[in-house]
Design goal:
354 residues; alpha+beta; 8-stranded mixed beta sheet; 5-stranded mixed beta sheet; Gln_synth/guanido_kin_cat_dom; ATP binding; Gln_synt_N; ligase
Amino acid sequence: MSNLYHNDLLAPYLALDQGEKVQAEYVWIDGDGGLRSKTTTVSKKVTDIGQLRTWDFDGSSTNQAPGNDSDVYLRPAAIFKDPFRGGDNILVLAETYNNDGTPNRTNYRHHTAKVMEQAKEHVPWFGLEQEYTLFDADGSPYGWPKGGFPGPQGPYYCGAGTGKVFARDLIEAHYRACLYSGINISGINAEVMPSQWEFQVGPCEGISMGDHLWMARYLLVRIAEQWGVKVSFHPKPLAGEWNGAGCHTNYSTKEMREAGGIKAIESAIEKLAKRHEEHIAVYGDDNDLRLTGRHETGHIGSFSSGVANRGASIRIPRHVASQGYGYLEDRRPASNIDPYRVTGIIVETTLLNQ
């Protein structure tokens, strides 16, 4: 089944004047942790989220509602510029609600927004390192020899040159699209396994971390769609001696970032240790395939921490330990996490559970 774009044919139509009307692409998280979207026309340029209407969709087709009561409602939560249509057109990240006004079971943003409001005096910052793997439309790893394997891991991490990196054009397109849209993307790099990449988003305060990461993921899968490439967020997409994919979560509070903040960091780590199992429960599906104690991971069954230790659950960067303040890195979250759940439970554990 062909999925190739005809950008040359599309271009003259995107250049047509659309008058004062604006296209708003509503984006939401479906019942399987994937992303869906649909478009509505708005009468004029949107300058405030309050101008946007609550919309609805068929939740029985997205695993979010039964067929006999299928309406699920989209409430706008965040606005980004649309890099696909340009102009005043926008992308709208929306929360999902049932017809009785309660948040849909897949809407983790609702609870996390309350958590972040309770903890706002501590000014929690996050930076997420999103790893992912690219596959051809036929399901084989992108750029790998058909029916075979590339050379062993080693030359691919932050690599340069033919045979060492794959799909750099797609990755550069995604980076620029994020910058245009207003996503706080802070960097990219090729990862240890060939055709595996990472982008970083942050620092973002509170609930905005989840908003920015979800929209960055949406842009990635949309752009990859144009390349005819599939994106996998599975934490262990290939068995064997290949690295898995994570979403390392960097976290700090106002107290951690101030002089002497290492005490607040150590206190947070002590609290995280006591709730290891509760965190693992929301740190991504199939994470046991990744957290084996090998390939730069700690074992899923135990909690550990250390300075500059990439095999620990929690890593304190060397420069943070030296200067005595900064942030910690939780290396447990998998690449397929819901960032609202992860950032929410970290704040609950370290700031709200006394």
